[in-house]
């Protein structure tokens, strides 16, 4: 399996409260140095709660945001400048809110034509042909092309979003919470479509979600983010069934399952660390039942835990 | 376009303005071909002729020139200059605003501070200064008026653009290979055009006045050329002896500016998206009730909802959001209503206390009895005394339900004070107690925090504390954990469950999540297209669903620990509730549907304990009981 996407030491720091001149009041490390590798045809699930940096990471990977440090390599080629047009031919983004990702004043045809014309310089007949093919493969009727975005349901709009990503002929798609705005009965339609397209076009997915069950159902490998850093990674079938990092375990226990008695899996007064004033050592230490002195002093590095699992923890759970 | 005109002319004043303006515009366009006397030929023998004199319908001015002719030529000029200035100001202002709003950061700062400086001068002084620098003349007056109005457009457009530039479609356009210039022109501009039109329609009148003002001072049109301002200026010295020379141009200015402003207001209202949905006014304090008959009281439960029907009347369409829902809630019970978006679950919950926005919402039938008393159609003071006191709500998004400008402690105290006559200090003390009850650490300090200073989970705890403030009998929770992370959701659910057991609260819990219902609710009702399709004890419904919709919906929900797999889906979409099929609303998506399913009404049948609205249920609900 060749490598589709490789990010090494990718990092993003935002300045907060910056006056017109002079240094900013504080720095927020939205993404701490992160290294990722995704093989061609693989689906990598990225899981984390709000504020963990998953969207910032994704925006860097598609060139919408310049990283503060680190390198991105797509299909063996280093892309050093955050230029979305340069990235767009190789990697595309499917957005969380399907309706707001479509310009309300343009018809679907106008929206679909842009990547074909701008990224691939196709003429009119070639464009029409290609749009027909793509619409066919995402099960959308051609008559939709002359309608406006507000005429579509969330599920249809999300399929249009996928169709636009395919139009750019990118082989890697970043799917940022692609089904969390949809109802469950429609969510499955979109997920199954994505699975079929992946096989058909040999696509590589980075699937970002906060819904653990969905991520587990679609991914080959999963990485868990907490406070801007990877805390655990491994094969999808192992990460949630045998979590090594206490945070992954907490996530897995928090997912509501019918019939399981309602008990808060952690202390009721725990809070997330303050990004402007991060604690020394492990960011999870103040929520962690296993934390000891070393956790509050030394930030653990990601290390192998056996069975292709990696975790950044001083006191990982045993299998 | 025809819809726009219809909306516009629904506003009578705007229509009148449009008619007057149209007459004036037609007149000035025809001026060169009308049989008028030349406007600039003087005839001092006939000076100051009164109106209706021979050969001079409106009389003559101090040089004996025909006033009618000068008025029409002058109006022509004034209108042209006013429109030109408006267009110049709109184009430049919009360009500046859209650039500042899109790029943001330092570019935005630099541009907008420049605009602020322009605004810091009184506009007429600024215009005077510009004309003084450029020299008098109509062209220079136009430049001055346009320049003075640029900040208004720039600030308006920038505000709209900042909101649009953060939208995902702009990111998508960048990824599709569009550069900044093309994004500004082809993605953002079409979205701000309505705002530009609105801003123009409300400022053109001003600009005509400003141009007239400069001409009045002798800085605009130069003699002998007439425009409305210079006509007024020249008539000034004869105001007492020959008032008609000032009244004629003055009246024209009045007509033009009034008609343009009336029309402009109409255009603004017609283009405003909030008015397009048919909601022309603020919602009423309680939902409109238009019931033909009230169902007999059954005398059951703490809260008894009977055959509730809530509709939305938008134009000629009727959306049957809730169509005959009956539910009972016992003291201390937790009842879940589960359904997809548009199934009517939230509208059911909001109807109980008359909280559905009217217009367009109307409760057209049924009853909701709290301890035997009907809440639907109850007088507003009665509803108000119950809202938040006996029946309290928790909403989905605590950030938008808490007031951003008040401290959370004060908001909690207000909730107590509006139902109990206690001192402010006592209410505050109880507020802190409530925050402790919902396990907010360091409650004393947190009471002084503003909503934005709290995390999402903490804010929702405040929302729960507010619902508990007056120790209600019933809490209606509308998707209270949907906006929260899973670890926080688990804490909030555990908290609600504890509170319910400690205080004997009855909870009506609205959600789309089977996992949540399964953990918190004793009984569950499944809604589809405004109706309950299945009802029963939670465990039985989840383990052994009777309605095909419930069964297939449960199959769609992925569960943790099942590994990688193909997911079950329900083909098609839920029906639109303004056009429901006959018979079972789920039949078009159901693989068990027979012709009988599509004919006639299907009742919610079964036992007290377990009911289903289906002729081909997955399990026999009567046998289970």
Give a summary of the structure in a few sentences:
The complex is a heterodimer of chains A (319) and B (625). Chain A is of the alpha/beta class.
Task: Give me the secondary-structure topology.
The complex is a heterodimer of chains A (319) and B (625).
Chain A: E1 3-16, E2 26-39, E3 43-47, H1 54-61, E4 69-74, E5 77-78, H2 84-88, E6 91-94, H3 108-120, H4 124-137, H5 154-167, E7 172-176, H6 184-201, E8 204-209, H7 212-218, E9 221-226, E10 229-235, H8 236-239, H9 246-254, E11 303-306, E12 309-311
Parallel strand pairs in A: 3-8, 3-9, 6-7, 7-8
Antiparallel strand pairs in A: 1-2, 1-4, 4-5, 9-10, 10-12, 11-12
Helix pairs in contact in A: 3-5, 4-5, 5-6
Chain B: H1 2-10, H2 12-30, H3 67-103, H4 105-120, H5 123-134, H6 138-165, H7 168-175, H8 180-216, H9 228-235, H10 244-271, H11 273-276, E1 288-289, E2 303-314, E3 317-329, E4 334-338, H12 345-352, E5 361-370, E6 373-374, H13 380-386, E7 391-394, H14 398-401, H15 408-417, H16 424-437, H17 443-446, H18 456-468, E8 474-478, H19 486-503, E9 506-511, H20 514-520, E10 523-528, E11 531-537, H21 538-543, H22 548-556, E12 605-606, E13 611-612, H23 621-624
Parallel strand pairs in B: 1-5, 4-9, 4-10, 7-8, 8-9
Antiparallel strand pairs in B: 2-3, 2-5, 5-6, 10-11, 11-13, 12-13
Structure report:
The complex is a heterodimer of chains A (319) and B (625). By secondary structure, chain A is an alpha/beta fold. Chain A has a domain at 3-18 and 26-219: P-loop containing nucleotide triphosphate hydrolases (Rossmann fold). Chain A contains nine helices and twelve strands. An eight-stranded mixed β-sheet of chain A has the order 6-7-8-3-9-10-12-11, with helices on both faces. Chain A has a four-stranded antiparallel β-sheet with strand order 2-1-4-5. With 625 residues, chain B is an alpha/beta fold. Chain B has four domains: 2-34 and 58-276, MetI-like (MetI-like fold, Orthogonal Bundle), CATH 1.10.3720; 281-387, Rossmann fold (3-Layer(aba) Sandwich), CATH 3.40.50; 391-521, Rossmann fold (3-Layer(aba) Sandwich), CATH 3.40.50.300; 539-624, no CATH class. Chain B has an eight-stranded mixed β-sheet, with helices on both faces. The longest helix of chain B is centred in the first third of the chain and has 37 residues, at 67-103. Chain B is elongated, with a radius of gyration of 34 Å. Chain B starts with a helix and ends with a helix. The model of chain B has no long low-confidence stretch (mean pLDDT 88). The interface between A and B is large, with 78 and 69 residues.
């Amino acid at each position: 399996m060749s490598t589709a996407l490789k990010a090494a030491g990718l990092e993003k720091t935002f300045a907060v409260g910056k006056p017109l001149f002079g240094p900013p009041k504080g720095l927020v490390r939205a993404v701490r140095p992160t290294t990722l590798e995704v093989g061609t045809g693989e689906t990598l699930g990225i899981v984390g709660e709000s504020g963990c940096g998953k969207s910032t990471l994704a925006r860097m990977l598609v060139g919408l945001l310049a990283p503060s440090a680190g390198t991105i390599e797509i299909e063996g080629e280093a892309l050093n400048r955050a230029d979305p047009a340069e990235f767009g031919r190789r990697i595309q983004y499917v957005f969380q809110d399907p309706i707001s990702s479509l310009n309300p004043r343009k018809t679907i045809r106008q929206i679909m034509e842009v990547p074909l014309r701008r990224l691939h310089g196709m003429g009119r007949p070639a464009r029409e042909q290609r749009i027909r093919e793509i619409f066919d493969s995402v099960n959308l009727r051609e008559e939709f092309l002359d309608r406006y975005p507000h005429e579509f349901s969330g599920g249809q709009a999300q399929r249009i979003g996928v169709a636009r990503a395919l139009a750019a002929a990118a082989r890697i798609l970043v799917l940022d919470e692609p089904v969390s705005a949809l109802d469950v009965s429609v969510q499955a339609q979109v997920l199954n479509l994505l699975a079929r397209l992946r096989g058909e076009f040999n696509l590589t997915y980075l699937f970002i979600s906060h819904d653990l069950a969905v991520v587990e159902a679609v991914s080959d490998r999963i990485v868990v983010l907490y406070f801007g850093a990877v805390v655990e990674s491994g094969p999808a079938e192992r990460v949630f069934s045998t979590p090594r990092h206490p945070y992954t375990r907490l996530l897995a226990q928090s997912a509501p399952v019918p019939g399981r008695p309602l008990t808060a899996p952690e202390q009721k007064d725990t809070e997330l660390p303050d990004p402007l004033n991060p604690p020394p050592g492990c960011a999870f230490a103040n929520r962690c039942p296993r934390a000891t002195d070393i956790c509050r002093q030394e930030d653990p590095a990601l290390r192998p835990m056996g069975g292709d699992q990696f975790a950044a923890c001083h006191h990982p759970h045993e299998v | 376009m025809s819809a726009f005109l219809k909306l516009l002319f629904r506003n009578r004043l705007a229509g009148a303005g449009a008619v007057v303006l149209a007459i004036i515009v037609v007149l000035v366009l025809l001026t060169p071909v009308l049989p008028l006397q030349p406007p600039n030929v003087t005839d001092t023998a006939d000076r100051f002729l009164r109106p209706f004199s021979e050969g001079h319908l409106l009389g003559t001015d101090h040089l004996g020139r025909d006033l009618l002719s000068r008025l029409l030529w002058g109006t022509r000029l004034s209108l042209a200059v006013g429109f030109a200035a408006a267009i110049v100001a709109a184009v430049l202002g919009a360009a500046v605003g859209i650039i500042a709003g899109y790029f943001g950061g330092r570019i935005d700062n630099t541009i907008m501070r420049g605009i602020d400086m322009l605004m810091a001068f009184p506009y007429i002084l600024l215009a005077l200064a510009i004309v003084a620098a450029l020299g008098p003349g109509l062209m220079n007056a136009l430049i001055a008026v346009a320049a003075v109005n640029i900040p208004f457009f720039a600030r308006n457009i920038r505000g709209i653009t900042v909101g649009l530039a953060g939208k995902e479609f702009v990111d998508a356009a960048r990824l599709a290979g569009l550069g900044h210039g093309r994004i500004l022109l082809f993605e953002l501009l079409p979205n701000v055009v309505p705002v530009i039109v609105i801003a123009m329609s409300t400022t053109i009148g001003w600009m005509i006045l400003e141009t007239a003002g400069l001409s009045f001072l002798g800085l605009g049109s130069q003699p002998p050329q007439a425009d409305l301002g210079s006509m007024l200026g020249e008539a000034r010295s004869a105001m007492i002896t020959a008032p008609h020379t000032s009244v004629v141009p003055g009246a024209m200015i009045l007509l033009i500016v009034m008609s343009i402003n009336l029309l402009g207001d109409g255009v603004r209202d017609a283009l405003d998206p909030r008015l397009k949905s048919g909601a022309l006014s603020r919602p009423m304090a309680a939902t409109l009730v238009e019931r033909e008959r009230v169902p007999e009281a059954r005398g059951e439960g703490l809260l008894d909802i009977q055959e509730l029907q809530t509709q939305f009347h938008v134009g000629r369409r009727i959306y049957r959001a809730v169509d005959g829902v009956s539910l009972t809630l016992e003291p201390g019970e937790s009842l879940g209503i589960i359904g997809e978006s548009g199934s009517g679950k939230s509208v059911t919950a909001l109807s109980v206390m008359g909280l559905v926005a009217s217009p367009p919402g109307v409760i057209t039938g049924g009853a909701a009895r709290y301890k035997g008393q009907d809440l639907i159609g109850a007088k507003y003071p009665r509803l108000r005394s119950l809202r938040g006191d006996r029946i309290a709500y928790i909403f989905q998004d605590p950030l938008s339900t808490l007031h951003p400008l008040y401290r959370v402690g004060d908001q909690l105290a207000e909730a107590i004070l509006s139902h109990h006559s206690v001192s402010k200090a006592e209410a505050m003390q109880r507020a802190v107690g409530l925050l402790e009850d919902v396990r907010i650490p360091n409650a004393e300090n947190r009471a002084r925090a503003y909503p934005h200073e709290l995390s999402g989970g903490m804010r929702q705890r405040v929302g729960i504390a507010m619902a508990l403030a007056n120790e209600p009998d019933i809490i209606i929770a509308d998707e209270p954990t949907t906006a929260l992370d899973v670890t926080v959701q688990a804490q909030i659910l555990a908290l609600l469950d504890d509170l319910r057991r400690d205080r004997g609260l009855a909870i009506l819990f609205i959600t789309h999540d089977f996992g949540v219902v399964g953990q918190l609710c004793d009984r569950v009702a499944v809604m589809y297209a405004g109706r309950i399709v299945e009802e029963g004890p939670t465990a039985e419904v989840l383990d052994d669903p009777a309605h095909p919709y419930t069964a297939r919906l449960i199959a769609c929900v992925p569960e943790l620990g099942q590994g990688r797999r193909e997911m079950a889906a329900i083909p098609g979409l839920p029906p639109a509730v303004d056009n429901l099929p006959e018979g079972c609303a789920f039949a078009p998506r159901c693989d068990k549907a027979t012709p009988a399913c599509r004919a006639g009404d299907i009742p919610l049948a079964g036992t007290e304990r377990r009911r289903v609205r289906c002729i081909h249920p997955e399990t026999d609900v009567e046998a289970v009981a």
